[in-house]
Write a structure and sequence with these properties.
- Keywords: ATP-binding, Kinase, Nucleotide-binding, Phosphoprotein, Plasmid, Transferase.
- It holds the Pfam family PAS_4.
- The N and C termini lie far apart (about 85 Å).
- Helix 6 (about 125-160) packs parallel to helix 10 (about 285-340) and helix 12 runs parallel beside helix 13.
- With about 500 residues, the protein is of the alpha+beta class.
- The chain has 14 helices and 18 strands.
- The protein folds into three domains: about 15-125, PAS domain (Beta-Lactamase); about 135-305, GAF domain (Beta-Lactamase, 2-Layer Sandwich); about 340-505, Histidine kinase-like ATPase, C-terminal domain (Heat Shock Protein 90), CATH 3.30.565.10.
- The radius of gyration is 40 Å and the shape is rod-shaped.
- The strands form four sheets. Strands 8-7-6-11-10-9 form a six-stranded antiparallel beta sheet, with helices on both faces. It has a five-stranded antiparallel beta sheet with strand order 2-1-5-4-3, with helices on both faces. The protein has a five-stranded mixed beta sheet with strand order 13-15-16-18-17, covered by helices on one side.
């Protein structure tokens, strides 16, 4: 390209030579006006060569002008060529599309040797950059998948070893943080009162929260919503989330995006929820979702393994203990039943019913390995003969197996009595059973309420103070567990049992 002879040159007589070059070429004055330009550069900008001459860079390609102003100053002041460097922006040739050029700038002088501008050679590298970017992204994605697969393999091996269960949980949240590149990860586990989830393992939370903090399980929390949905839940932006509000724990840590998934357990209730969170907007792809599902499955297997190990130990111990107690209990029930029965057939029927109740209560507790037992499961097993007539309400709490067993006997006596003299004996009758736990953690009470709309049950022989059923209830509730019994008989039959209980934090 020949040097122009004046600051504003309009001579394009040599454009055929310039146009033969597949590179964008032009000459800019020191105030960034076009002096010469070839067809290729003109096409880059979206105007004809003639449209460029004498017009400023800011007028024709305003995206580019701020990026190159200092380059012109450097060329003019130093008199040296510069480049290559990248310039990017939109032009009239393709509005809305970002293009990238690699440019080289050299000084241009007039006949007196004064630098009056710069000649520019530009190569469109947009496609090359796109390919390079795709390669980089593919490499990063490959590395990300490798990290995730390695984390799954390592955690899976750890879960199969004879290590502490907490070690598996701690390793899981650490693996999730590294493999998904997120600052906050957590495992929430059900507390046995079933009304909240405890933070049992986590990465990135404030000191003192892991092992102590808890969140609710209602639908307003992400964990609660995840449990109800029973599937993977993705949050794009917690601030604009409409399905739930998110607990204070997340908002206090500036959570924006995240994923959560239930952790299944061997029983009817999940172990808890696995969650990962970011403090910036983040899009999770299918591989990230699959990774979290795999992580949840490994934790679930560890949960089941730990539960089986605990149940096995307790079951062996309890079997020896229960065998002697069961024989004594059967002997006592037999003696009391046959002593108070008016006929052998009545005695046999009553004894068989009580043995059946023992079997059902024992089955419900044995199913869970003689560990803290779901009271709702016990209720359903014990009262299964009357299930169509029962209206049951209460949290799915866990109680000591001994207490559950005794309450099963009490409920059987109440149910049998109602069949003979109360609502359960009528075609359309029903009985309401409810329970709750209240009081401070060091002095809690379990309250069980049996409500029968038929009041005539109070006058029955079985409900009399000398009846075996009444004696059994009094012996178990008052004598053995130091509880209180309140009976109301005006217009209905209502028995309220209040038992002091001592429960560990994980049972509430």
């Amino acid at each position: 390209m020949q040097e122009p002879q004046s600051p504003i040159a309009t001579d394009q007589s040599s454009k055929s030579g310039l146009d033969a070059v597949p590179i964008g070429l032009c000459v800019l004055s020191d105030d960034l006006r076009f002096l010469r330009i070839n067809e290729t550069m003109a096409q880059f900008n979206g105007y004809t060569p003639a449209d460029h001459l004498g017009r400023s860079l800011s007028e024709l390609v305003p995206d580019i002008e701020p990026q190159v102003r200092h380059h012109m100053k450097e060329v003019v002041e130093t008199g040296k060529a510069i480049g290559p460097f990248e310039v990017a922006g939109e032009t009239a040739a393709e509005p809305g599309a970002l293009r990238i050029w690699m440019e080289y700038w050299s000084p241009v002088t007039n006949e007196r040797g004064e630098i009056i501008g710069a000649s520019i050679a530009a190569i469109d590298v947009t496609e090359r950059k796109r390919i390079e970017r795709e390669k980089d992204e593919a490499l990063k994605l490959t590395e990300r998948r490798l990290r995730q697969q390695t984390a799954i393999a390592e955690l899976g091996q750890l879960a199969l070893q004879d290590v502490a269960f907490q070690s598996v949980l701690d390793k899981a949240v650490e693996a999730a943080s590294v493999a998904l590149e997120v600052p906050l990860t957590k495992i929430l586990a059900f507390e046995d009162a079933a009304d909240k989830l405890k933070l049992v393992a986590g990465i990135g939370w404030e000191d003192g929260l892991v092992g102590a903090a808890s969140v609710g399980i209602d639908k307003d929390s992400q964990a609660g919503y995840t449990l109800m949905a029973n599937s993977l839940v993705i949050v794009d932006d917690l601030q604009s989330e409409k399905r739930f509000s998110g607990p204070a724990l997340l908002r206090q840590h500036g959570v924006v995006s995240g994923m959560s998934i239930p952790i299944p357990a061997a029983g009817d209730r999940p172990y808890g929820v696995l969650g990962i969170h970011t403090t910036e907007h983040h899009v999770f792809d299918q591989g990230d979702k699959d990774f979290l599902r795999s992580l949840s499955a490994i934790i679930s297997n560890a949960v089941c393994k730990e539960a089986a190990k605990t149940q096995s130990k307790l079951l062996i111990r309890e079997m020896a203990h229960r065998a002697g107690n069961m024989l004594q209990l059967v002997s006592s029930i037999a003696a009391q039943t046959f002593r108070h029965a008016s006929s052998p057939s009545e005695a046999r029927e009553a004894f068989n019913q009580r043995l059946a109740s023992l079997a059902r209560a024992n089955h419900a507790i044995a199913q869970q390995g003689w560990v803290n037992t779901r009271f709702q499961k016990l209720v359903e097993e014990t009262l299964s003969p009357f299930k169509d007539k029962m209206r049951i309400t209460g949290r799915d709490i866990r109680l000591a197996p001994e207490l559950c067993f005794d309450l099963g006997l009490v409920l059987n006596e109440l149910g049998t009595n109602s069949v003979k003299y109360g609502s359960l004996g009528s075609a359309d009758g029903f009985v309401e059973l409810s329970w709750s736990i209240d009081g401070p953690s060091d002095a809690q009470n379990l309250t069980v309420v049996w409500f029968d709309p038929v009041s005539s049950i109070a006058a029955s022989p079985a409900a009399s103070s000398g009846g075996f059923g009444t004696k059994l209830i009094r012996q178990l509730v008052s004598s053995k567990w130091h509880g209180a019994i309140d009976t109301q008989t005006q217009g209905h039959y209502k028995m309220t049992l209040t038992l002091p209980i001592t429960m560990k934090a994980e049972d509430l």
